[in-house]
Amino acid sequence: MSSEQARMKFYCDNNRCIECYGCSVACAEAHELPVGISRRKVITLYEGIEGKEVSTSIACMHCSDAPCAQVCPVNCFYIREDGIVLHDKEKCIGCGYCLYACPFGAPQFPRDGAFGTKGAMDKCTMCAGGPEETNSEKERHLYGHNRIAEGKVPICAAVCGTNALLVGDAEEISAIYRKRVSSKGQGA
Amino acid sequence: MKKIIFSIITPLILASAAYAADSQIWGEMILSNIKAYGEVSSFSLGPLFVLLQSAYFSKIFLVVVLAVPTVFLLHYLIIGPKVFSHDGDKIYVFSLFQRIIHLIAAVAFLILIPTGLMIIFGKYLGGGSLVLGARYLHGVATLMFIVSVIPMFLFWLIEMLPTLDDIKWVFILGGYLSKEIKEIPAGKFNAGQKMWFWVASLGGVVMIATGAAMYLQDFNYNIAASFGLSQIDFLRASALIHNVLAVLITAFFFTHAYMSLFAIKGAIHSIITGYKENDEVKYLHSSFYKKLKKQGQI
Fold first, then answer.
1. What is the pLDDT confidence band of residue B17, given thresholds at 50, 70 and 90?
2. A185: alpha, beta or left, given left = phi > 0 and alpha = psi -120 to 50?
3. Residue B123 and residue A115: Cβ atoms within 8 Å?
4. The complex's ipTM?
5. Residue B54 has pLDDT above 70, yes or no
6. Among A41, A73, A99, whose Cβ lies nearest the Cβ of B122?
7. Helix (H) or strand (E) holding A78
8. What are the structural domains of chain B?
9. How many beta carbons lie within 10 A of that of residue A175, not counting itself?
10. At the top level of CATH, which class does the domain A8-184 belong to?
């Protein structure tokens, strides 16, 4: 291990992603997300152009300098020691500023308020729940399944058939990717 | 009444229908939204919004909220208010309709400004239902402002057009820096009132539009595209404009309130009863007074 503190990161190896949507579906299922909300998305660039088409899976990237946390007017974000960016839905006022700050379009707003107004923000938790008591009914209801607390890998990476989606300490993820690139002699 | 209710509910239904049909943010549009964040060819509104919202907006608002009342307190203590007799003749200046419309706008502002500040300083209030309530109330008060802004703009428009008096008024700052009571060059409205009028009406309409964009968030009326922006960039621009204009409007609102309540003792009565003190008009709106005299109305 390096001297740097462990920081949990996602990485999607787009040489391996086959646009199967498994991660997105598994996420929605594991966290019982309402219709219209998908915390993880698969996107395809240059669709149909031979040799150029590339797919990748994106969700909250759990940024080190999380811009969402910087702009939140009610400070509802908190960053765990392991780098997972989480937020408190009971503090959130659904203003949407985090969405404007996010480079990945990760924050989403279910229309569950009065008159169909935006409710509290919802985003990927890296399967680490929220500020409520770990594995409580309330945490599960608001933030979904807390797999990290159970010692499990986030569901999206766990179900990825081609091992394209990697999750874990940033150093280890880059070591895996480096190994893949050097053994294939291409990528990156 | 039915029409009003329909006109309020219809956009909400349309908005949720548009949301359900095709998201402008998280659907196929997500690519253009992501690309708009920091691309060289983009306006870089994402990083700009993060910078201003994280480090500057709340500080600027804090300065405005503290400095403007402090300046007025000093003005009150050092120079003092202008006092005109309230026992003399009165001049009828505001019709009942104007007073009612102004009242609606006044109540709207009394809700909009504190709730807006509550959202800006939400972290010090702990967020949650209190600030969420403020955000909802901010939206409800907007409906009141929408009702009042158009008639107010129309019935005062002519008298709010700039005149030569306004330049002279600005040079002497309306005479508010001296205790002496002398004739101040101004028509029915002085240059300060005119500035407030234009900021509140034209600025107000921009506030309504940008606020509505942020409130609805995910809509598709080809508005963002017509500006050549992705949906999120359009929202970022809305938030930036909304905050910058809000600084200006808040400062002007405090000024407007100070003038009517303290700087000119009892001046607020003219918008309640419709009658302004003879001397107040004679000295503070001298050109208007002369015009009325010429027309033989006083």
1. very low
2. left
3. no
4. 0.91
5. yes
6. A73
7. strand A77-79
8. 2-94+151-294 (1.20.950)
9. 12
10. alpha beta
- Please tell me the distance from the alpha carbon of residue A83 to that of residue A103, in angstroms, as a whole number: 18
CA distance A78 to A143: 14
The answer for B 70-109 residues in CB contact with A (under 8 A) is none
Could you list the pLDDT tens digit for every one of the 188 residues in chain A?
444 567 999 999 999 999 999 999 999 999 999 888 999 999 999 999 998 999 999 999 999 999 999 999 999 999 999 999 999 999 999 999 999 999 999 999 988 766 667 889 999 999 999 999 999 999 999 999 999 999 999 999 999 999 999 999 999 999 999 999 999 876 64
Angle at the Cα of A181 (from A176 to A185), degrees rounded to 5? 155
Contacting residues for B120 by C-beta, under 8 A, at least 6 apart: A73, B57, B58, B61
The C-alpha atoms of residue A129 and residue A124 are separated, in whole angstroms, by 9
CB-nearest to A96 from B50, B132, B235 is B235
Q: Which residues from chain A sit within 8 angstroms of residue B33, using beta carbons?
A: 105
Q: What residue has token string 């909802």?
A: B136
**Identity of the residue numbered B105:** A
By the 8 A CB rule, do A157 and A166 touch? yes
Question: Could you tell me the residue ranges of all domains in chain A?
Answer: 8-184
- Which of A88, A100, A102, A108 should one mutate to test binding to chain B, selecting the residue with the greatest count of B CBs within 10 A? A100
Handedness of CA A92, A96, A102, A108 (dihedral sign): positive
Q: What residue type is assigned to position A122 of the chain? A: D
Cα–Cα distance measured from residue B185 to residue B172, given in angstroms and rounded to the nearest whole number? 10
Spatial neighbors of B18 by CB under 8 A, at least 6 apart, are B218, B219, B220, B221
Distance from CA of B59 to the nearest CA of A (A): 12
